[in-house]
Amino acid sequence: MSTRFQIAEPDEGQRRAAQDILVGYRLGDPPSSRLEAGLRIAIEWTRRDGFEIDAGEEQRMEFAVARILARQGAPKVEAVDLGSVDHARLLLVDASLQREAEIAMQLDLLDRQDTYSWTHPDVTRIPWVKAESSPTDFMNFADADLFAISEGEFEQISRGQRENVEIMLLRGVNARDDEFERELHQIGAELYRGAAAIRAQDFGASADVSRLQANAEALDLERFSALPAPGGLSAKDMGGVVDRVAMAKLADKHSETSQNLYDARPGRNPFRLSAETLRFAEVTVSKVADGVVTNRTERAARIALEFQKEHGLSIDRAALVRLEGAVARAAADSHRPTWSDLDLAKRLVVDTSMQKAAAEKLAPRSPLGIQKGPSASEKSLELMLGRGNYPVFTRLPYERADTLAVSKGQFQDLTDDRGIGSMVRTALHRSGRDLTGAIGQQFARLEATIKVKQDRDGGWLDRKAGVHRGAEQVRSLSKGPQRELDLGAWQQGRRGRGR
User: Fold this and answer.
1) For residue 406, which of 396, 417, 421, 418 has the smallest C-alpha distance?
2) For residue 322, is pLDDT > 80?
3) Pick from 429, 396, 428, 405: which is nearest to 264 by CA?
4) What is the total count of domains within the chain?
5) Sign of the four-CA dihedral 111, 117, 122, 125
6) Is the CA virtual torsion 396, 400, 405, 408 positive or negative?
7) How confident is residue 497, by pLDDT bands cut at 50, 70 and 90?
8) Do 334 and 404 fall within a single domain?
9) How far apart are CA 228 and CA 241, in angstroms?
């Protein structure tokens, strides 16, 4: 794993600072930072989960706080914007690793296998398991490593297991379990609402009450969320990067058998496209834009575009160019003969959504840097693949080349040292999974409606119900000029462009 994401080792000053933060908690001082607010949420969650907050539990939290402070002060790590709940999640994952390592050391091998398996009824309550690390990971640690973890001395873990522990810990940086998130946010809201009221009973002066009210707002999840540092990462970005690194590590371990491993070398690059394949994709997309559906590939492309229209994505010239690249990659995939038309349509949706999500990440930010939730393309990826199962692209300088390659549909230019290529390839392989609920019903309806060799429908892209709604949503995300689809100009550009 890159040193930019390693667990930093706390120095003496950071350990003393962590001790001071714990002293402030014991004295009941109001929190003055997101980390201090997160500590209170983490301790309250631990208490409600049935653990006594004794000296041992406070020491685990102290070590976890020191590691966060060390990472914030390390010169070679990326700036990450974490809210109070994000800090609480990280602290709980860290403390639970220490606690469970101590328990595991007291068990013989058979009892350890039973306790840390998916069949154990209580294993899913462990925070580091809630962060999507398998409980069976504890089977791989030697006693010496378990001892180092239980003592909170992560720097003493053997080199071979250090990266595994880093991945387990850093997966706690972003939300992964819905129930866990509801519990953490509920505790945060209760602490925020109750802090000022409780303190107001102890101080009669209105000035004191006002000051305490302001301090209590440190627990307000919205007010206590700062904007990311320039070029830094959000908690979601960081979680995506950790997942990518973990996937690249796993793929490298099973390099001979993994079909998801991306290899950038010319003779092994799975995204390399021939001129014939690119020409086939151009012709296919041009016919679909004209309303022609004469074969299964054209049918899949039409289903994909109709799906995106219904989800608010504009079908403009850029969308059709993205579809060309997606069709070409699908046509070059050796697994294509086994796909149904619907499987191919799903793959095209995932491919084009990744391209658009990468382009949006590189687009200039507003002066305030505010992003109001996921974009339409990110929502589309989450619908298709599930949360956490698609690539998260960043604005980091050393990842810009990979993000740019995806945004331009040039997947063959991806590097293979950051895990992005493997994550992109895995997303494409997962795109054919069965979908249930409303999303599955939508695809079933489109599949039943769109047929091969149906009558030419040249005006389908111009229907107000689809194109204009999508254009409005895209314009709401960008200050760029309003543009309508000009099929004639697009097709002329396609014919005149050299390869």
Assistant:
1) 421
2) yes
3) 405
4) 2
5) positive
6) positive
7) very low
8) yes
9) 16
List of E strands, 385-434: none
Output the six-digit token pair for 153: 């001395």
Q: Find tokens 């880093």 and name the residue.
A: 166
Q: Are residues 170 and 78 in the same domain?
A: yes
Computed over its alpha carbons, how large is the radius of gyration of the chain? 26
Residue 200 CA to residue 76 CA, distance in Å, equals 44
Give me 68's structure tokens.
């966060």
Tens digits of per-residue pLDDT, 205-230?
A: 444 444 444 444 444 444 344 444 44
Contacts of 211 (CB under 8 A, 6+ apart): none
* Angle at CA of residue 14, ends 70 and 21, nearest 5°: 110
- Considering the domain architecture, whether residues 365 and 263 belong to the same structural domain is answered as yes
Report d(CA 62, CA 200) in Å as an integer: 29
CA atoms within 13 A on the CB side of 426: 22
The verdict on 344 and 215 lying in the same domain is no
Same domain, 449 and 338: yes
Nearest to 42 by CA among 2, 82, 101: 82
Q: How far is CA 230 from CA 227, 233, 235, 404, in A?
A: 9, 9, 14, 19
Distances (CA, A) of 485 to 353, 481, 488: 19, 13, 9
Q: Which amino acid is at 421?
A: G
Cβ atoms within 10 Å of 438's Cβ, excluding its own: 8
Contacts of 141 (CB under 8 A, 6+ apart): 101, 104, 149, 161
**Alpha-carbon dihedral 82, 83, 86, 87, rounded to 10 degrees:** 80
Residue 323: count other Cβ atoms within 10 Å of its Cβ.
26
Q: Global pTM?
A: 0.64
249 in any annotated domain: no
pLDDT of residue 77: 62
**Tokens 């390659």 -> residue:** 405
At residue 415, the pLDDT reads 80
Compute the half-sphere exposure of residue 123: CA atoms within 13 Å on the CB side of its CA: 19
Burial class of 268 by CB neighbour count within 10 A (0 to 12, 13 to 18, 19+): exposed
Q: What are phi and psi of 2, to 5 degrees?
A: -60, 145
List all residues 6 or more positions away from 278 whose beta carbon is below 8 Å from its beta carbon. 324, 328, 499
pLDDT category, 353, cuts 50, 70, 90?
very high
| Residue keyed to tokens 């890159």 | 2
**pLDDT, averaged across the chain:** 77
395: left (phi over 0), alpha (psi -120 to 50) or beta: alpha
442 and 307 in contact (C-beta within 8 Å)?
yes
Q: Residue 194 is part of which domain span?
A: 3-232
